[in-house]
Specification:
single chain; TIM Barrel; 9 helices; 12 strands; 32% helix; 20% strand
Amino acid sequence: MKKTTTAIITYDTEEDKYDIKLKNPLSVCWQITTKCNLHCKYCLSSSGVEGEYGLETKEAINIINQLGKLGINRLDFTGGEPLIRKDLEKLIQCAKCNNINTIVTTNTTLLNEKNIETLKLADLVQVSIDGPEEIHNEQRGKEVFKQTIANVKKLKEEGCKIRLNSFIYNSNKQYVDYLLNLSKELDLFSHLFIIFTPQGRGKYHLEEIISEEEIEKIKEKIINCRKEEKRNIRLYDYNEYMHSCVLLTPLGDVISQGFYEEDSICVGNILKQPLDEIFANKIFDHSIHVLHYLQRRAI
């Protein structure tokens, strides 16, 4: 579905420049749980079997209703593994009732006939693959590569719109071409590359931080591929979009995300403060998030 957001655009005659301001973020990324059946080596949320299940259904629906009133365009259900939540279908339906687009990020290994129907309700299903079989399995902590590929094909056959998601770090940066070819072979319309950020379990692997020079090479490769193949391929670098990504934790904390974990700031808690007050915090730069999409569209 399409949804319009109102922005305030001002022109400074003295500086000869435009400024765009958004009262609220365009999208919110929500870790609805940090429970996960996998134990990924560089997981940004340190998710695993001992993670937080998340808020009760009633509280979660109340949050979605608040987001709807604020005009949020998109809600990304992530984790952990969202398919662990027994109420995921209700949460997606609530978002749809609020005219909010939804993304569900899943590792697909818990896929069954019932939750396939749940995923079909989402506007987009995002599946992470980080490289060839050996690389992907090493990062995920289990032999899941073949299962994930099979499940991507299954979801596509069932009518789900799929975006491939690839986390790029020093040990797999040489596989960007492989990943670009993989999403093309799978006939996926969209592919998002995310540059490694040392958060969660990643903070114990600073050796995986990619140099700025290498990031520029990766960016150029992605831009060229996007031009040539006319596919929706983007790169997200936390360092470039500091404090523009809004993260909700399983217990309701609202985080303005930085590059290092210590750069990320807990602005408030949605269970204790009105969301419009939290989003008005000056640490957020909601307009920068727009550039992640507009700049790539202009290329």
